[in-house]
Design goal:
Layout lengths: L5 H17 L8 H27 L6 H15 L5 H23 L5 H26 L4 E2 L6 H23 L2 H11 L1 H6 L4 H23 L5 E2 L1 H4 L3 H13 L6 H19 L4 H15 L3 H31 L1
Antiparallel strand pairs: 1-2
Helix pairs in contact: 1-6, 2-6, 2-9, 2-11, 2-12, 3-4, 3-9, 4-9, 6-9, 11-12, 11-13, 11-14
Length: about 325
């Protein structure tokens, strides 16, 4: 794909203008709305990264919080030892190594088996980190004191989201993206087409995990204290899945349509019903699955398709009528 083609340059240019405008947000709002903006952007990265893998392959992964927690804990351990850019590099390497191990060992699984494994992986990692903290360091949790402001976190997450969208845009127009779409439709057909299914899925799984890990690392300084329960809270994985499914995981910007309303909804539910949040989250999930199985984007495309066919038929009829008249 040539980067000089108009269909590539125009969307990138529009995106650059939008992100440049969003960079001025800290100077326009107070600390509360900045905190809300950080939540929106962080969930946008996580949901889009999740959809980058699960959208085309149709694998439902509940391992989001594993990589998010690895990133956060890397900052807690190395934040006061190394410069922050080096900490991000270490977090990215750690997330990549774990994703490679998980990918090559589990992506031959499919359906409910993959879902169960990724959910179990979350608990396994949390228990291993807890055991290490209790038996090796002799303390539970770590304090994070870094000279990184709320605005810095927002700008870093915004830059990461921009890179993620650009990566997804390029990927969707590449051979790898085409291979993934074939795999999502039918893995058997993909194998007969000569596609190395396992390697393609692992490559995308690792790429998705890298962005999740960096998100956890960037947002870690927002907390002053991190322990395994906070860093590896499985609720995060379910929130990300719900957001992606609401927006539509098969389109690049689809998850964003679920992130914005649900982040606001979760903010209200957490403040108003802190003891019943899990129950309400489950209700939201069931409503989305039953009423919007294809997400907002899928619903839009469903009602747009008949109009397109009607318009195409009318155009063809008009053309034939003109030919007969002539």
């Amino acid at each position: 794909m040539s980067i000089l083609k108009p269909d590539f340059i125009k969307p990138v240019a529009i995106g650059a203008v939008i992100f440049a405008a969003l960079a001025f947000l800290p100077s326009l709002v107070d600390s509360y709305y900045m905190s809300l903006a950080i939540s929106v952007v962080s969930f946008a990265v996580l949901a889009t990264a999740w959809s980058m893998f699960s959208g085309p392959t149709r694998y439902i992964s509940l391992a989001t919080v594993v990589f998010f927690g690895i990133g956060a804990y890397t900052v807690a351990v190395l934040g006061e030892v190394l410069a922050f850019p080096l900490v991000l590099l270490c977090a990215g390497l750690a997330g990549t190594v774990v994703a490679l191990l998980v990918g090559f060992s589990t992506l031959r699984l499919a359906g409910v088996y993959f879902v169960i494994f990724t959910f179990g992986l979350t608990e396994l990692v949390r228990q291993v980190v807890s055991w290490y903290e209790v038996n090796v360091t002799r303390e539970m949790g770590r304090y994070v004191f870094l000279d990184i402001t709320q605005n810095d976190i927002y700008w870093q997450l915004l830059a990461l989201f921009a890179v993620l969208l650009l990566t997804g845009f390029v990927l969707g127009r590449s051979r790898l993206g085409f291979a993934l779409r074939i795999i999502g439709e039918d893995e058997t057909v993909a194998k007969h087409c000569g596609i190395d299914v396992t390697r393609v899925k692992v490559a995308l799984f690792v790429l998705s995990a890298l962005f999740m890990t960096l998100t956890g690392a960037i947002i870690a300084p927002r907390w002053t204290y991190i322990d395994p329960v906070i860093a590896f809270n499985p609720m995060l994985s379910f929130q990300v899945v719900i957001m992606a499914l609401l927006g539509g995981p098969r389109r690049l910007l689809g998850p964003l349509l679920g992130v914005i309303p649900l982040t606001l909804l979760f903010e209200v539910l957490t403040a108003s019903f802190p003891n019943h949040f899990s129950i309400l989250l489950g209700c939201v999930f069931m409503v989305i699955v039953y009423l919007l199985p294809g997400g907002v984007v899928g619903l839009y495309e469903k009602y747009r398709a008949p109009k397109k066919r009607t318009l195409s038929t009318d155009t063809e009829t008009t053309r034939k009528s003109e030919e007969k008249t002539a």
